[in-house]
Amino acid sequence: MLQINNLYKNYGKFKAVKNLSLHIPKGDLFGFVGPNGAGKTTTIRIMCGLMLPSAGSVTINGVDALTHQKEIKRQIGYVPDFFGVYDNLKVREYMDFYGSMYRMGSREIQKLSDDLLELVNLSDKKEVFVDTLSRGMKQRLCVARALLHNPALLVLDEPNSGLDPRARVEMKELLLNLRGMGKTIVISSHILSELSEMCNSIGIMDHGTLVASGRIEDVMDSVFGNDQLIITLEEGRDTAVRIANEHAGVKVASVGEQELKLTHSLTKQEIAGMIGEMIAAGVLVTGFHKQEGSLETLFMRVTENEEQKGGTENAVKSSH
Amino acid sequence: MRLNPVIKREVKVQSRSMKICWGVFAYEMILALVFFLAMAIIRQENQYSTNNIYSSLIALYPALAVTQLIILALIVPVRTASAISGEKERQTFDIMMTTSMTPFSIIMGKVMTAIVQSMFFVAASLPVMALSFVIGGMSWSYLFWFFAVALLMSFFSASIGILCSSICKRSVSAVIMSYGFYLIFVVGTVLPIILASYLSSYAYTSGNASSGMHRTLGGVVYSYEENFFLPLLLNPVMYLVEFFVRVMAGESLINDVTSTTGMWQTSGPINLVATGNRWMILSTVLFLMVSFLFLRLAARRINPIKKKALRRVTRKAAKSISPQDSQAGQPRV
Ligand SMILES: Nc1ncnc2c1ncn2[C@@H]1O[C@H](COP(=O)(O)OP(=O)(O)OP(=O)(O)O)[C@@H](O)[C@H]1O
Ligand SMILES: [Mg+2]
Fold this sequence. Notes:
The structure holds two protein chains of two kinds. Chain A is of the alpha/beta class. Chain A is 42% helix and 28% strand. A six-stranded mixed sheet of chain A has the order 6-7-8-3-9-10, sandwiched between helices. A four-stranded antiparallel sheet of chain A has the order 2-1-4-5, with helices on one face. In chain A, helix 3 (91-101) packs across helix 4 and helix 4 (106-119) crosses helix 5. The longest helix of chain A has 25 residues, at 295-319. The two termini of chain A are 44 Å apart. Chain B has one domain (5-299). Chain B is built from 17 helices and two strands. Chain B has helices at 5-16, 19-45, 53-56, 60-89, 93-98, 103-124, 126-134, 141-167, 171-188, 191-205, 209-212, 236-249, 253-260, 269-274, 278-302, 307-320, 323-328, and strands spanning 214-217, 220-223. A two-stranded antiparallel ribbon of chain B has the order 1-2. The longest helix of chain B is centred in the first third of the chain and has 30 residues, at 60-89. The A-B interface holds A 6, 45, 48-57, 66-67, 69-70, 73-74, 76, 78, 80, 82-89, 93, 97-98, 100-103, 142, 145, 149 and B 2, 5, 8-9, 12-13, 16-17, 90-92, 94-101, 304-306, 309-310, 313-314, 316-317, 320. Magnesium ion binds at residues 40-41, 81, 157-158 of chain A.
């Protein structure tokens, strides 16, 4: 669906995006994650034809996005991070205006905008002036507007910024809904926990580079390696270590006073069996839990590494 | 042909706000002021004469027309100067650029809106203007010509405004810049003549008047200075003066000038353009061309995907594909 190859963007000397390559299959809900200034907005704006890259290519549905602007504009619906609305314009007219910019007939616009306003829960606001809507409503209206010409790809730049928790949940529901309709969606955010609930693939950006990308599970695995299991116990630590070591595919990562940290590649049944063995051997197990690699720690870990790299680079540069 | 969505929206929005009503009100007030002033002058002049005062009402025509054209020249650039920069300030510009609208049709939409609006004002002045036709007995065709000139000047002003709007980030600076552009057209086109008269007086005092100041064209000697009148073709004030002199006095100012300065006898370029209607026609065509040029430039400026830069990127992309790759893959179309 969306293919980006070796994308670079320089603002003068500053390199905002460096050698970014990415593939997003049809029907994916892709989350762009990264700290402030990572280059997410820059990448998104290039995707939407609002900016030329310094080098590289963007292909959407097999069509070169840079040279075929006209076709691409019909394929993409874009919700910017910051946007405004016109004064003195009603919601219905707002939709009408953007519909006619896509050369749609007024009857077609009427029908589609009715459906879309229903979808984003704004049907009762049709005759309300857009500038009087709340922030969350404007955001949803903008999504409806972006869908008006029935694009295959919907791109949202930080749609959750400035929304209250309830509006966020609604936005998430809306996006999942749209994904169910077969739209490919790209969304950027710094709020990772939200992305993990709805995205099926993510790309982590930092300092202009895509540090990791792919299906959410794969990205987590590649960073954390195997699953971790933490066993807390009162007595028989050494026995527990011995039993753990007897199992193939289990490695003792660290041994604490009353805690054992294991990395493993076992199934759930095998883990249960192993813990049963330990208890049978007289180890007083007081508890055990799986350590989930949270997206936050993943994020910190990935961007941390980058920071160090960037730091050393700068150090090298400054020493010259 | 379908209506440009930009025009549709802006007209709708403007009809909702009270601003336009106050605008028309102010416009009419100014015209009324000019009207009473002109009437007072006409009365004064005819106080002791037995002339038919009604035919003097013809004088209302230039007075009101010039007033309107000046107001339009001041207002229209302001309207369009905020067109693009206003969209940017309102943060609606990016969304607009991701729609199917081409940059040129966006620019056209904005310019047309400004023209429709200025024509709205002109139409509002009709009742007062009509006096010089109904009572003054002036030919109705001049009303048509006034509309045509107002249209042309609005278009020209609008295109200056929109170009500045596409250049400047902020509306305020765009407005200032468009007045600057005006100044270039009004004052800048006169400078060559001033320069020429300075040069010729210099040539006269140094006694070699014939050496540098004369050229031949097709074997006929003509004065070199007269070419300095040509930029006046793009002077809006000159255009209006010529128009009103033609309407009111039935003669051409530029013909007068060229004949009194002695250029009339020669056959240089100035005489080619200054005979008959040619000056007005050529001037009109030039104004239209410059306006279109400005619109094109504005459209180019707001287009995020500039052709030249795009070619650079695609060339780089073509180069980065290694020879084996391009042979193995399908030929790129
Ligand atoms: N027009 C510009 N001119 C110069 N530098 C720019 C411009 N736009 C962005 N940058 C720089 O490029 C870098 C990437 O910016 P970008 O807006 O893409 O980041 P982002 O990931 O969207 O950040 P955020 O999460 O804050 O929105 C930043 O360091 C920014 O300073
Ligand atoms: Mg951003």
